[in-house]
Amino acid sequence: MKVSGTSILNSPRERIWQFLNDPAFLKLCLPGCESLEALGPDQYQATLTVGIAAVKGKYTGTVTLSEKEPPQRFTMQVQGKGPGGFMQGTGVLELAEDPQGTQVTYQGDVQVGGPIASVGQRLLEGATKMLVGQFFTAVNKQLAAQPSPP
Question: Distance between CA 101 and CA 61 in Å, rounded?
């Protein structure tokens, strides 16, 4: 499944870069995130509770950031599994200056398997867009609440 889109964040690009590389900040913004702990440089273990249609559960996995070009872009690899199945994906986030703050453009590819894959492509795409929207809304909210970078 292809995933792509853009979002405007109400803060300068350098500040967005710092926060998107801070696991404590990301934990506050990821929908359903229960924990996000560093395993090493740019690698994290996450536990999330997520539900898509009737398939709900706790998922654990890893997030790895690579190919960093501060403050412009980075690649994110994600893999996880839980009672509803598994997922793995790779995506690129690009940060560009915008009159309103920073435009974040993301694009990637995600593979899912197990019971969650039976939900159907259209429903998965809608749920993915909803979760991404919740993430960026939470990022803007947290940015407003934290006047200085971590």
Answer: 31
Q: Is residue 99 part of a domain?
A: yes
CA distances from 109 to 3, 54, 75, 90, 92 (A): 6, 23, 12, 6, 10
CATH number of the domain bearing residue 51:
3.30.530.20
On whether residue 95 sits in a domain, the answer given is yes
**150 within domain boundaries:** no
Gap between the Cα atoms of 74 and 97, Å rounded? 16
Structural domain that includes position 78: 2-145
Question: How much of the chain, in percent, has pLDDT values that exceed 90?
Answer: 58
**Tens of pLDDT, residues 89-118:** 899 999 999 999 999 999 998 888 888 777
**Closest to 90 (Cα-Cα) out of 71, 64, 60:** 64
- Give the residue, 118 or 15, on which the prediction is more confident: 15
User: Mean pLDDT throughout 36-63?
Assistant: 87
Angle at 2 between CA 6 and CA 23, to 5 degrees: 60
State the total domains in the chain.
1
